[in-house]
Design goal:
The chain has six helices and no strands. The protein is an all-alpha fold. It has one domain: Cytochrome Bc1 Complex, Chain D, domain 2 (Orthogonal Bundle). Helix 2 packs across helix 6 and helix 4 packs across helix 6. GO terms for molecular function: electron transfer activity; heme binding; metal ion binding. It comes from Rhodoblastus sphagnicola. InterPro entries: Cyt_c-like_dom (IPR009056), Cyt_c-like_dom_sf (IPR036909), Cyt_c_1A/1B (IPR002327).
Length: 129
């Protein structure tokens, strides 16, 4: 019985480790985010620009960043940002939300999408990590 518990614990740890790895690398994501930074700000003191501030994006509904004027497409998309939805969106924004104002062509590399999500999702609504 102890062996079964030990194996179960080892399996849980292995899964947790692989899940953390699969989530991406925030440091690499910070570099990828440079492609986004012309329009989007993040971190302490971030303000809306050409695009909305991305502070607190995880769990936020699309079209809901205070003080930013969204397209009707984004406001009415019904999206709540989570990892899977963000990665689908950032692959090809115009395909995911036809009519969005976001003209960015997307991030075709899965690793870049993983890493940028790992980076931006660590920021709370107030810009702190």
């Amino acid at each position: 019985m102890k062996l079964i518990h030990a194996l179960s614990a080892a399996a849980v740890l292995a899964f947790a480790s692989s899940s953390a790895f699969a989530a991406g690398d925030p440091d690499a994501g910070q570099k990828v985010f440079l492609k986004c930074a012309a329009c989007h700000k993040i971190g302490p003191g971030a303000k809306n620009g050409v695009g909305p501030s991305l502070n607190g994006i995880a769990g936020r509904k699309s079209g809901q960043s205070e003080g930013f004027t969204y397209s009707d497409a984004n406001k009415n998309s019904g999206i709540t940002w989570d990892e899977a939805t963000f990665k689908e969106y950032i692959t090809a924004p115009q395909k995911k939300v036809p009519g969005t104002k976001m003209t960015f062509p997307g991030l075709p590399a899965e690793g870049d999408r993983d890493n940028v999500w790992a980076y931006i999702s660590q920021f709370k609504a107030d810009g702190s990590k």
